[in-house]
Amino acid sequence: MSDNTQIIEKTTRDTTFKATKIPSDSLREKHWENVFQTKDYTQVLWHQNVPSKSLSLIEHYSNQGDSIIDVGCGASFLVDSLISQGYKDITLLDTSKTSLDIVKTRLNANSKLPKYICSDILGLKEIAKYNIWHDRALFHFLLLQKERKKYFEVLSKALISGGIAIINTFSIDSQTQCAGLPIVQYDEERMLEALPSDLTLIKTHAFTHTTPKNTEQNYNSFIIMKK
Fold first, then answer.
1. What pLDDT shows up at residue 140?
2. For residue 203, what are the β-bridge partners?
3. pTM, entire model
4. Is the pLDDT confidence value at 11 over 50?
5. How far is CA 60 from CA 39, 57, 71, 129, 134, in A?
6. C-alpha distances in angstroms, 138 versus 65, 83, 112, 219?
């Protein structure tokens, strides 16, 4: 991680979060391109051979005909699982073109089924409407309040009324970094403080992810409804 300009930002509950260099859109793109170009994506710590938690939550809050967007999808196997369960209206969004190319190659005959958007979520100007917004672990990389505000503006614009966002983050007792970048940990109180008035937190699930190196990471999955 770079030792460029240090920034201390005030976060919720008057705690402070100290990090080195807040990544811009272009720096995030370069960082994640480098990750997917130089590493075996099946061995990175966040990889899941079977994304069972996300899949079960999506299945619980949706029907097969619903439209789903997976933001910060990386090279996740979630899209493979959704297709196998009969979902067809799937959009994949990631800032790394390489990660999307990996998915296209892996899906083979099904590669034309999803829609692909290569963009940083904060720089997205236009977005379609969705029933389900899924975020495996993008939100917790947003260190600045203005970034989180923009994220929720995009999310609110994308979700239909009554639509569901599933946002996963590291929990308070878990990691403070991921893939060499600092993150913000969340519990229910902290997420509630971050949410704008048109979004309602309806449930929180705690779960543990076992990494490819057989270590454990604690997550919270926040179920949020658009009013």
1. 96
2. 223
3. 0.87
4. no
5. 33, 5, 19, 20, 13
6. 25, 22, 24, 13
